[in-house]
Amino acid sequence: MARLDRQGTPQGGGVIRRRLLLRGFVQGVGFRPHVHNLACSLGLSGFVRNTGQGLEIEVQGPAAAVAGFSRALRDEGPEPATVLACEEEDIAPAEERGFVILASRQDGAAAMVMVPPDLAVCPACLAEMRDPGNRRYRHPFINCTACGPRYTILASLPYDRAATSMAAFTMCSACRREYEDPADRRFHAQPNCCPECGPGLVLTDPDGRPRAEGEEAVSLCVERLIRGGIVAVKGVGGFHLAASARDRRAVARLRQRKQRPAKPFALMARDLETVATVAVISAAARQALVSPRAPIVLLPRLAADAPCPEVAPGLAHLGVMLPYTPLHHLLFADNLDLLVMTSGNRSGEPIVTANHEAMEKLAGIADLFLFHDRDILTGCDDSVEIELGGALVPVRRSRGHVPRPVRLAASGPPVLGVGGNKKNTVCLLRGDLAFFSHHLGDLENAAVMDAFAAGVGRLEKLLGTRPGIVACDLHPDYLSSRWAAESGRKIVRVPHHHAHFAACLAENRVTGPAVGIVLDGAGLGPDGSIWGGEILAGTLAASERCGSLAPLRLAGGDTAVREPWRTAAAFVHQSGCAGMMPEAVSAAGDTETVRMALEARINAPMTTSCGRLFDAVSAMCGLCLFSSFDGEAPARLMAAADPGEDGAYPVKLEDDHGFVRIDTPGLVRAVAADLAAGAGPGRVSARFHRGLGRGLARAAAQVCRRQNTNTVALSGGVFVNPLLFAVIKAELAAAGFAVLHHRRVPPGDGGIALGQAVAARAARP
Ligand code: ZN
Ligand code: ZN
Ligand code: FE
């Protein structure tokens, strides 16, 4: 909104008239009532209306008041709104009195109008819901222009009730009056409804037999949860499986029925005070928790058994969110303040959204089903965020974020990035904005590929753009790459780690040259080997590999990912310290067979993967020998780190004709020796994190000096590790480097679709 500044305040105290055009997320978020109130409070006349371009405002009055209006609009828009652009011009004053909200003007190209994300229930609606005198007392679907479902109930644009799944409900006269009154906070709130005219609840048995409706359905559900039951609850973006998080037996039963032995469960807490009973909440985390996007925030756990060990066995963080729909608020009671709220899906499949589908797919898991009859048109998982360097960074960017775009430094032709094969999202560039899809999942089966194709179609439809260029991963066997190849459009293959690097540059609006530290589990490098611990140098368009972790062989290819003990055995053998094979590793499996497979080069690919190095050290410490979910071994290793330990293993850098190789075998030997000398996992983990972090930072610094750049970008899934992130960032910052890291885009594979797309755009001749 820089143009506001440049135009400044006109001189003189006469009456002026100013026309403003706001673009971005300015519709469906309560902007018109906000503008109305602001203009009236300043004694200005004029009007506001929605147009196909955004929000059009004309205000008239004393110059100082008009300037004050411009300023206030810039500084204090309604919370869920995002103004992406504002044009402003002074025009001739007109004869008029008062300020009015005019009917919307539909004028062709809906170029910059955007659907807002789903917004958590606002304080005003909550207060009404808790007021016994209000006609929406305990109404599970209360909403207004500032809150409620948006993206997930929308079928097409423009965002009007007829285009949402609320079209099935006809507003009663009381609701319609609110909807049509420009001064009402439900003016054109598309999902507006009340107990008379809105959706309803029904609680059923697993065989579909109704137990209760409405208020009684809620109370029976709460009662069952208190008694340790598991209830499938339909929310905004899909079903959750709910159970009391303080009931160890209930949580264990849910684990057993979901066949999910160790992967952490997300929690939903009644309020912030409840969150504080299980985790540490920083100011930044608190802000995220109570924000309208209401994500799951990964918070430092107060104790290993908070609230019970079973919710996240052996982990240092708990994923916690606050209730974000009115119905969620009704699920809590005096003796029920903390729930497990895990996605209702079959392992590896998308979140369940339809009632009949829930009945079928969650059979055998849920004791009861709490349904409602407002359809979910797009399944959308909860977003996950973690605090890194004082800011909240999305680990999974989905409900509450999408379809809010990320602003880029420059415009260009439309491009679709289709992402990788894990934690997939797709990303569409239009103009200088990058729009991500919701989280689509691991592309491993037909159900997820259906969701993937639907996600692409939905994004293209909402944005009215079908890009002719599709950017995909270099790996030809990723299902996203195959989809791209079969799309009939021009495809650009982008190396995995370059995509991570480019995503980080792009969201920081930097084009390079820069150096990148890219750390993840695995991605195909241009040389055909598996990369994952890389120092790159280049620009948005392309980068060169200037350093890496020293390559080591894995034992067992894909099995290695599920069995970290194999990687530990393989790395110990190759590091020349087999005599110090940690006991935990020898006890987990036959290390001699691993050695023979390595020597025979059977299923023993070379890798520079940073994720596998974490796996190996985690297994050497006996923390995780077999992994039941992605990232388990690294998460346990980080959780074990002793905060009081400030040592670091020395890490050598080898110069191979200008290529910097980080001596991983030396690091493995240091770990083995320390363990052999009796060090515990707490000490080993802390020293490993600090040693590796410093080694990587020094390697990047060397490459920077050679490349004559001062900027280092940090990307890759390993960077959701706050400990390693902090070490690397501090080392580089202390040495005077400018450090770029992710803030709006996931550091992991959920963010690479952006990097693919911007790289394809930048690489155009
Ligand atoms: Zn509200
Ligand atoms: Zn009504
Ligand atoms: Fe990756």
Properties at a glance:
single chain, binds zinc ion, binds fe (iii) ion, seven-stranded mixed beta sheet, eleven-stranded mixed beta sheet, 31 strands, about 775 residues, alpha/beta, about 30% helix
Give the overall form.
Answer: globular
User: Could you tell me the number of beta strands?
Assistant: 31
Strand content: 15-25%
Q: Main sheet: which strands, in order across?
A: 7-6-14-8-9-13-10-12-11-15-16
Q: Which class do the helix and strand fractions yield?
A: alpha/beta
Mean pLDDT: 93
Helix content: 25-40%
Number of helices: 24
Main β-sheet description = 11 strands, mixed
Bound molecules: zinc ion, fe (iii) ion
Describe this structure in words.
The structure is a single chain. The chain is α/β, with parallel strands linked by helices and 765 residues long. Helix content is 32%, strand content 21%. Strands 7-6-14-8-9-13-10-12-11-15-16 form an eleven-stranded mixed β-sheet, with helices on both faces. Helix 16 (564-574) crosses helix 18. Fe (iii) ion binds next to helix 14 and strand 23.
